[in-house]
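Forgive a beginner's question, but would it be possible to get any protein sequence you like and the tokens describing how it folds?
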Amino acid sequence: MRAVVLTGPSRLEAVELDPPECGPHEVLLSMSALGLGDQDVAAFRGRRPVGPAPWLLGRQGVGEIAAIGERVKRPYRLGQQVVVEPDYCCRGCRACAAWFSSACPERVSIGLDRPGLLAEFVAVPAHFTWPAPRAVPLEDLVCAEPLAESVAAARRAAVQPRQRALLLGADTRGLFLCLVLRARGLEVIVREPVTERLDLACSLGALPWSDGDDEFDVVFDNSGKRAALADGLDGLLPGGTVVLLTGAAAPLDNADLLRRQLIVRGSRGYDHPTDFPATVDALASGEFAPGKLARRRYSLQQANRAFEEAAINVAKPWLSYDW
């Protein structure tokens, strides 16, 4: 089968590989499309360790079922289109039992910890695939993973329609979160110094932040900037929620948190088996239309160019499996 492998930092090559076998609990997919995200770029650049070269990258994939393992219990059929959930949890620990798989100690990511999806055929656990109607455009489906992270962040913040949210940082992750919050009926104020990113956020229905903005029900910190978060906390209503999306140190004052009874929580990834199918369902219903953020389509022959583009452009590139 044809594949594109990472042979060194910032270097992809087209190769021929033996097709994978379909295990008893797996489905074999004929791949159709692949989205590129920040973790893909980090691995491509050599900033994120992966397995030995040549290595298969690729996480955010869509494909058709070409074979079904003998012990797969889901009512799948050959030719059915599915989206791959790329983070595999153990499904047996206490975190997984509590539907908190983002904290699973055995969690692994395809394309990073295990070979990825940048091949003509791939075998993946059936439990981590979700049916996707063909009526949904591929440029929407390749956004399922970053959307699922945003759906999880909104769920953890317990957002409600007509609330006022401050979003600090409108990189790709921030833009997907902006899209989800607007779809859920929130007024979204965005603080972002890069004009292109701010313009994209405003095109999704957000408003630009200005000095003195306050009375926020919830603040999402996607910037990691202490000064920006400090301003956001100052504008948070009593009893409001701040959601930390980065690991940067936060300027939190315990006495102030107690006095104003603020809620502080982190949000990392998404949880199996709830957030990913909920996201695919929202795409199928038309609640989310993220294709405007995935405007750049490339063929697999242009894979190097697509990865380079993902490193410098906020618009999400994606690959179609045209050989």
Summary: The chain has ten helices and 17 strands.
